[in-house]
Amino acid sequence: MGQSCHFKAFLVDVDGVLVKGGEPIPGAREALSELKRLGAVVILTNNSTRSRARTAELLQSLHFPVAPEEVVTSSYIAARWLLDRAGPSRVWTIGEEGLSEELQLAGHTLVPPQEAEWIVVGMDRSLTYAKLADALRALLSGARLLATNRDGTFPTPQGLLPGAGAVVGAIEGMGFSPEAVVGKPSPVAFEIALRVAGAAPGEALMIGDRWETDIHGAKQAGLATALVLSGVSSPAELPRYDPPPDFVAEDIGGLVKVLTERVR
Ligand SMILES: [Mg+2]
After folding, report:
1. Please, are residues 17 and 40 in contact by the beta-carbon 8 Å criterion?
2. Torsion of CA 125, 14, 239, 183, to 10 degrees
3. How confident is the model over 217-247, as pLDDT tens digits?
4. Distance, CA 106 to ligand 1 centroid (Å)?
5. How far is ligand 1, taken at its centre, from the CA of residue 80, in Å?
6. Which CATH number, 3.30.70.20, 3.10.450.70, 3.30.1850.10, 3.40.50.1000, labels domain 77-181?
7. What class does CATH assign to 4-46+184-263?
8. Of 67, 145, 192, 252, which has the fewest CB atoms closer than 10 Å, so is most exposed?
């Protein structure tokens, strides 16, 4: 961990790191400001329902210092991946506004399902049988399938609700698999976030609360990692995390304290 004081960039998860149950985690705002003094900060979230701009707005409403250009959502990742892979494409989505918005901003065209080259799937709180039937017809006619992420559930103030993984699972249940699932833990998510941060993998620290997505994924992409215990992970689970995170802290405030002490 000799390089630990010299991170050029920090990738920061949202749920369980900055926000919990719709409220800022105590000390997280100050910690984020401090991280911005140490290097570039990119917010990296699998939430596909909001665009980068709306995610920044939401965080700003909780008084986090975050600009839209500092946010990477799985909807943005999907839009960029598709542009890199296939150029501007005709797309149809099962997802919410943030997904359509990011696809259009990247230069893709939203079309009816029967005209789509790609079906892009994210979390959709108005998923219906009719949408699945449209997806099936499009896939049978040769449309390709791209998924934002596979998170089975996501936390809300009311408890866990079905995530994008539930939607992907419904389509897999019809016999079709996505060509790519680009959100965390995919290396694609970290590559695109690092591109936005302007940093190489070895120069960046991923800060997250979920080992399976944030830590394991980032490790595989060559980043250093910090697990915070303010979200879904408990200290009792630490021994079974292999590879282990480089840092473990109570919360992002505690982590930043450790990082800044190393700088001094
Ligand atoms: Mg999280």
Report:
1. no
2. 60
3. 999 999 999 999 999 999 999 999 999 999 9
4. 26
5. 22
6. 3.40.50.1000
7. alpha beta
8. 67
